[in-house]
Design brief:
The structure is a single chain. By secondary structure, the chain is mainly alpha-helical. 43% of the residues lie in helices and 7% in strands. Among the domains are: 2-40, no CATH class; 56-109, Herpes Virus-1 (2-Layer Sandwich). The chain has helices at residues 2-13, 28-40, 56-60, 102-109, 127-155; strands at 63-66, 90-93, 99-101. A hairpin with a 5-residue loop joins strand 2 and strand 3 (99-101).
Length: 156
Amino acid sequence: MGIEDNSIEFRMESDRYTGNPADYIDDAAGYEALLQNLAEGDGGGGGRRGAPPAAKSAIEALETFQVTSSEGETIMVCAVCKDGMVMGETGKKLPCGHCYHGDCIVPWLGTRNSCPVCRFQLQTDDAEYEEERKKRTSTLSDSATASSSSSSASRH
């Protein structure tokens, strides 16, 4: 009987909500706190969030191809619009190998520099971002080299 009482009580409290009522904001103070939290979480101070757009030269250098299909082949699907790529359409192929409609991937890369599927990063025109990316890449490769050399040294 206790379970029935709790379920009825919860149902009455949550008529306005789907799911957990604690996931919702009901008052102006809650909205203000949420907006403040989002504003502070943007990298500290009005700067751009996330990666910059891909370089125009990188976008122009993408391989353009004609979609062909033969029996037994898998159908390519554009990960941006989620539509199948129809035989005869023109597509764009990123260096990582993923293919998209040209009309979908070019605007995507105009706002961010990464593949929608695997996050492969194309070059940008932002020198500061590229410098940071090189530092991160060299730090990761240095730590991977150190890790592999220490593990091989411990085996000997």
